[in-house]
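Q: Could you predict the 3D structure of Serpin domain-containing protein?
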Amino acid sequence: MGTFKAEAMVVDFLHAPEEARGQINTWAAQKTKNLINSVLPPGSIDPATTRVMVGNAVYFKGAWEGKPFDRRLTVHKPFHRLDGSHVDVPFMQSRMRQFVAIHDGFKVLKLRYRMAAHGHTNKTPTPAPFGRVELEQRTIRYVAPPQRAAVPTQFSMCIFLPEAHNGLRGLLDTIASRPGFLHEHLPHQRIDVHEIRVPKFKLSFYSSVVAVLKLGLRLPFCGKADLSDMVEDDSCGLPIVVDDIIHKAVIEVNEEASGSKEAN
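A: Sure. Here are the predicted structure tokens for Serpin domain-containing protein:
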């Protein structure tokens, strides 16, 4: 369990379900630096059927490379909604050279995160596609190709902006039409821009994902599932099956950094 930074705790679902819920929410808050402080709402634990809960949390906070945004330049401007209305929100502004790609009907902005000087790299060198075979004094010798240097890992936030105010749904359909569409349309070089504006925002999403998973994964959710090895015999006589999978995600973007947190 140490390899995956996993931990286990004993809680009393049967006699103290709300106390157990509080312990689980406290764990989620600690793992996400208090950005997600509640995963389970009141009454979400059924003491008659709940035996095991498995939690997973992912936390990411990245500072922008080159500090592209200055708080003093942040101003309120209209943000257009899908229903045609608009609301004034704070927009971060930058006049620095940026990674921007312009395509038919939409633009793409790539904001890179600052990486550590000796951060993550692809440690497996990539060989050139072909070596060569030499014949020397009746001995066949294979000469290995030179190895390319390890490529540093680079994380970025990519923003796709449709030109039309009501063009978001159409752009989403286009992106989903081909698996390689996203990578094929990302910018690869910085260009001079007069100004870019990015809204500051904080979004949260909460949903049960069981309905989606059941499209291709039914067994864990039915009585035929055998997950009894996860618990000791509690003499309840109930099969151990997956009842629900809850996903909550939060993302926050401001002048210094962006952060995303997920809990399941």
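Q: Anything worth pointing out?
A: Confidence is low (pLDDT under 50) at residues 123-129.
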